[in-house]
Amino acid sequence: MAPRGCAGHPPPPPPSPQAWVCPGKMLAMGALAGFWVLCLLTYGYLSWGQGLEEEEEGALLAQAGERVEPSTTSTSQPHLIFILADDQGFRDVGYHGSEIKTPTLDKLAAEGVKLENYYVQPICTPSRSQFITGKYQIHTGLQHSIIRPTQPNCLPLDNATLPQKLKEVGYSTHMVGKWHLGFYRKECMPTKRGFDTFFGSLLGSGDYYTHYKCDSPGMCGYDLYENDSAAWDSDNGIYSTQMYTQRVQQILASHNPTKPLFLYIAYQAVHSPLQAPGRYFEHYRSIININRRRYAAMLSCLDEAINNVTLALKTYGFYNNSIIIYSSDNGGQPTAGGSNWPLRGSKGTYWEGGIRAVGFVHSPLLKNKGTVCKELVHITDWYPTLISLAEGQIDEDIQIDGYDIWETISEGLRSPRVDILHNIDPIYTKAKNGSWAAGYGIWNTAIQSAIRVQHWKLLTGNPGYSDWVPPQSFSNLGPNRWHNERITLSTGKSVWLFNITADPYERVDLSNRYPGIVKKLLRRLSQFNKTAVPVRYPPKDPRSNPRLNGGVWGPWYKEETKKNKPSKNQAKKKQKKSKIKKKQQKAGSRSTCHSGVTCG
Q1: Known active-site residue 139
Q2: Which of 6, 22, 39, 124 is catalytic?
Q3: Whole domain around residue 135: which residue ranges?
Q4: Would the pLDDT of 272 be above 70?
Q5: Does residue 28 lie in a domain region?
Q6: What is the CATH number of the domain that holds 238?
Q7: Predicted TM-score (pTM) of this structure
Q8: What does the DSSP 8-state code read for residue 271?
Q9: Has residue 573 been placed in a domain?
Q10: Residue 9 appears among annotated catalytic residues
Q11: Which residue among 28, 307, 434, 478 has the highest number of C-beta atoms inside a 10 angstrom radius?
Q12: Burial track 122-139 (b if 16+ CB lie within 10 A, e otherwise)
């Protein structure tokens, strides 16, 4: 029977309590028996998060003749917990004024550091690739769109990933949730990119209960994996938010908290399809728009799941030495229930509504808790920050685009970051009115690009859907156009400039007023573009069809080297011809090549 709620059972009791709570030397049998009774009593309280205070626990252990050990881990390396939500809009958290209840997120953020100048990418694959490599899209070849299920494409194998770097310094690495970084070859799978274990989906979306996904008619398959195989045995038809949380609880219950842990939890929620367990709709009956109501239920379910993850961290002894990072992967999609108000634009665009994200850090290790960070932070920054916290090293010859921003977050120091390349996409639909002339001969403004330098943000080409969508504008048919503030991009423009610090909602275009700043940012774009690698966006491969792979989405590409290897008979014939040729050469005979040219 499936457990109640979307977030699973309360955490089960941790295994081998004698190894973690009651260590010590061998005592006489009588004393050992008494100690075991005491140990079990103490463990019974601790396993449900209602244990004795540390002082009381220490006193009891001392009475049993044991040396008192710290209650937290003995390692100086912190446990790293990165939680990535999918398609959560900027407004869609309680502390940003949402009508959706998110008490867990609100509490964790209030007790930690809220990131209020935090940027990601506008769609799934780019954000995930930049998090795991610390590199902009232009430096991995993934600057266009997402990785499609049928494409022979994945995160380039020559990039050292975050889990690989953490494993070098002794971390156990586990991933639960959505991968979306390609899988056409076995080498692209999460377990080949640094994760000890993987439980989740390979594609960008799918049914929350059945875990099936159709990419197009006739292209349908199952998408739930346990490491490198379809997870048929682990699939009980449970809602994915609940299922992933249960797996996180199992990982924490079986891991020794004295050993450093990296846990990447990439929830499917709140990405479409809009599905949620029924009981989460109770508080949102007043929301008229059905998509918004479903979305609200999904987010409430996610909030409860994160509460249970936090409880498990405390229950199993990880919390005091943990750093919890929460982030959305991109802005919300208004037509699928999300809201980015009062920001402009939506998921898939380079307006603030597509790239400015909900994010915070929660940790007992923070020096300045309960604060707001307004310094510039980007998703690439987690790569060097987490490696540094883990006491790891980044090779000097590897060029990354992220910065170590831990002191910025923990101590309130200035961010080392002064700019962000949001992207340069050379194959996106060109802006009809863009030209080199409009870019002062520095840049072709038909190309979609966006860059932030200090307070200034520049966009060129076609930035995407640019409306402001107020929360009250939702109707049963999606956003009501009568209530939107619409902007038409067919007015001849292909360059926009905003002072984001003064105008975070992008209402006042300053490109005509400050041409000097426009030129400066165009030159910076041009400099970045010189370092770009070719775009990786291959056509679909019919061999990717799940029908050819047992009904499962998974690796299909195989190197065709076997076809080039000669068969045994061919090899024998070749050897025979070679012997004949040598005999002919010794006899002084002359032969001619197939082209008719005399061979000597």
Answers
A1: no
A2: 124
A3: 79-417+534-542
A4: yes
A5: no
A6: 3.40.720.10
A7: 0.82
A8: S
A9: no
A10: no
A11: 434
A12: bbbbbbbbbbbbbbbbbb
